Amino acid sequence: MEKTWRWFGKNDNITLAMLRQIGVEGIVTALHDVPNGEVWTHEAILDLKRFIEEAGLKWSVVESLPVCESIKYGGADRDELIGRYIASLENLGKAGVTTVCYNFMPVIDWVRTDLQHPWADGSSSLYFDKVRFAYFDCRILQREGAEKDYDATVLEAVDALDKTITDAEKETLIENIIVKTQGFVNGNITENDRNPVALFRDLLSRYAGIGRDALRENMKYFLSAVMPVCDRYGINMCVHPDDPPFPLFGLPRIVTCDEDIDWFLHAVDNPHNGLTFCAGSLSAGIHNDVPRLARKYASRTHFVHLRSTNVLPNGDFIEASHLEGRAHLVDLVRIFEKERPDVPMRVDHGRLMLGDKAEEYNAGYSFHGRMFALAQVEGIMAVVRDELEKGLI
Ligand code: DNO
């Protein structure tokens, strides 16, 4: 696999020169300053591409070219927005940047409740606390009917939490769930929004009446429309699985499991319609056997995210060490090195460690934590390549 790294553009304080020193081969990035729904111009793409190449690297993957909400819920302007999406793809294709990651998660991209869950050794990870999430949904957002999505034990715990939670903790919960994890990846809500909860309620209301089947149809409509430009330029679209892979806020989620992946690959059966194999996201669903999915979908995987989680007995999940947890990265490296030796791979997320905390990196995207994880994955890759060379696997 090609060793890539998610880099947030010219303002990222992790520089391309630093990335070369740690063995990164390809860059994963986006035109982060272009608002969702606007066309990525050929000039802006070429400018960033040149900047990356002058540092001795290549722009391997776009993560993400965001799909506007209106395309997902099927708004009146969706054809216009899909037209702009196609124009951006065309400009990327002309520039030779041909792997494009996106997601089809309504309203909210990935979800965590705690961005600094402490480990005994002094480092910290991202964490999803089921009760705190339910607290946000039922008590802060006050979503109509939210209670029926949780069982009695969780609702009792929400009542108990209500007696002890401080205002500062409530603020942090809002920041973590809908602001800090979202602004840099999705643009629906940013750090500058003064009332993110109201904005979030408004976004949710646009999905009234949109269930799983309608969202699937809208994804099929979108993919069918973009395939011709992908065929023309050899662009591989790779959808990111829903993180976590189960429904939240009463919204449908449609890239969560074997059946979902099978559905969208067949709905638009074109090799350019593929998957970002995000091991961490898939592993947070207790229903997913991650190595089995990798074996089944390696041929339609165009981008790999390596990360792992542990699902706890109470339904919480924690981002695990890259050497442990439900994703079984050793097995995954064996599968992808064998089946897809050239596919771009990035380590996904890392712990906050060794001074990372002071740098205020985007949530999950620390320097030392990710560098440490990359070194672990490189070690696995070296062993697996040796096994392949010796014909042992
Ligand atoms: C989180 C990321 C996701 C991902 C998008 C792709 O860390 O993996 O936000 O970039 O879902 O569209």
Question: Would you write up a description of this structure?
Answer:
The protein is an alpha/beta fold and 393 residues long. 43% of the residues lie in helices and 15% in strands. It is built from 14 helices and 12 strands. The protein has helices at residues 16-21, 42-54, 69-73, 78-95, 130-140, 152-164, 167-180, 196-205, 212-233, 258-267, 279-283, 290-297, 329-339, 368-389, and strands at residues 2-6, 26-29, 58-63, 99-103, 114-118, 124-128, 236-240, 273-278, 301-306, 309-311, 317-319, 344-347. The strands form 2 sheets. The protein has an 8-stranded parallel barrel, surrounded by 4 helices. Strands 5-6-11-10 form a 4-stranded antiparallel sheet. Helix 2 (42-54) runs parallel beside helix 4 (78-95) and helix 4 (78-95) runs parallel beside helix 9 (212-233). The two termini are 16 Å apart. The relative contact order is 0.13. The structure holds D-mannose.
What are the SSEs and their pairings?
Elements: E1 2-6, H1 16-21, E2 26-29, H2 42-54, E3 58-63, H3 69-73, H4 78-95, E4 99-103, E5 114-118, E6 124-128, H5 130-140, H6 152-164, H7 167-180, H8 196-205, H9 212-233, E7 236-240, H10 258-267, E8 273-278, H11 279-283, H12 290-297, E9 301-306, E10 309-311, E11 317-319, H13 329-339, E12 344-347, H14 368-389
Parallel strand pairs: 1-2, 1-12, 2-3, 3-4, 4-7, 7-8, 8-9, 9-12
Antiparallel strand pairs: 5-6, 6-11, 10-11
The chain binds D-mannose.
Residues 63-64, 101-103, 109-110, 185, 240, 348, 364 line the site of D-mannose (DNO).
